[in-house]
Amino acid sequence: MLDLRSLAVGYRNTRGTVLSGIDLAAEPGDFICILGRNGSGKSTLMRTIAGLQTSLDGVVLLDGEGVAAMRPATRARRIAVVLTERQFNPGLRVEDVIALARQPFTSWRGGLTDDDRAAIADAVAVTGVEPFLRRFFTDVSDGERQRVMIARAVAQTPRLLVLDEITAFLDLPSRMEIMALLRSQAKQKGQVVLLSSHDLDLSLQLADSVWLLDGDGGFSVGTPEALSESGSIGRAFDTEAIRFSPSQGRFEIQMSASASP
Amino acid sequence: MAARVSTSGAALLASLAALSLLTLTYGQIALPLADTVGALTGTRSSDLARQIVLEIRLPRVAAAIIAGAALGMAGVLMQALFRNPVADAWSLGLLAGGQLGVALTVTAAAFAGPAAVSFLTFFEGPSITLAAATGVAIAALAMLALGRRVGAITLLVIGLMLGFTSQGLTSVLLHFAARAGGRVYGGWRDASFAGVAPSALAWLSLPILIGACVAVATAKPLSSLLLGETYARSLGVKVTSLRYAVLAATVLLVAPVVAFCGPVSFVGLIAPHFARALAGTARILPLLPLAALGGALLALAGDAIVHAPWEQHFLHLNAILAIVGAPVVILILIFSPAVRQWR
Question: Which domains does chain B have, with CATH numbers?
């Protein structure tokens, strides 16, 4: 359903190419985690896949159609994004934020039909944002805000859901809940969910497939098990102080490296 | 929510009608309500009453309503476009820019000679509207470019400072223009609705009407821009064209007001807050009519106080608007969560 064909992403300025020669595919219901350290190109890749940034080379195809060539309105009906970017929005209530997701489907006035209301109600139920629907978006907590933005993306009823480091502000239980929620969305609705995260533990537990960026322009793809056993995760994340242990499935601190009496 | 919008709209409309009628009855000569209504409907009234109501007071009241509505709508557009709760045509220096445009044109004509002055006088409506529109557009583009680099409060301060600079220049220019024979209506520099001739009402309202249509057309995508540029794009909004469309609407709404009524302060800044409180939402479409009605009511109320039967004519419109408006802005700056997040 989602195909990346010899894709190169990056910027037409001094930052240049970040990743190139990417050939990947994802099927409906895939829950995919993109892992990599800061600056490894996760966000650039995700923005390009979502059509928010032009690719340097190659194409991103969604259901066989080039994302970059789609009309903005068509793309908005098929791809929803959630970002860490925080905006302040004077006077916008949580319910308004979620309802904005239906804009690609509404007439010029933005009035909601029964279908729109059903999609919103479903998103609200799934994400559990009901208790703070009437509150101002600026007044909810970080965790609640992220939930609202996910509810908004779900209400957009996309084929592809792209979420960039959305769990960064959250505590462990919330992170687990949100990851599980997104995984079940993918399975139930047959959507492709693409999520970038720093959360190695959870990603390795929940992902169908992991796209691993090593920070030097290289990447590897596979199931979480395959990647940990082959040592790819270690190569992408290990430093002098920490080391990934494939058998434990987590990082260990290297006592010798942090040595000082 | 739709019910809230229509109820508040109806209430505002009724207050506006009542206040208009009241404002038409008083002035240097008090007219009984019956005579005023008679003059308006063309029945049962003296020629004098008809002349006072239709030729002196009605144009002023109409100008206040039209200008107030335009500033209110422009305020909604600008606060959404800049995502800044204290943005409006006055606070960001657009009105002062428009004034400077008019002053430059009048001065240029004055120095070009009597032919240019009489040309300008003859085509007063279109030419000064165009001059004001140029000034407003330049100021708006400058603020938009700046708005991407600095915070909300910095932008406000810069806007006010540029406003003072333009007003200073306007005053100097008009001094020289007057010596060379160029003239503008005296009340215009400090904002007044009293200088709008009945013939100028068409030039005041036509661009505003077009601007209002553009504003309504941009309302839906502008609502998504409240989430930020990237989210708006992910919702299918062409952000750059939207910016220019909103800017065009703002210029169309604001330029005629500057051209005919001068720099009317605070109305455009407060009316959107008023509208948001009444509507219970920040979605643009329901805010536009409420901010238009609220702005009209505020402008007319200011005018009604200025033209109340005082023993001496001592009040300026902007003095009244500042006494009411400045404390409201201070409260917004202190309590608005949107402003606090910028620090």
Answer: 2-340 (1.10.3470.10)
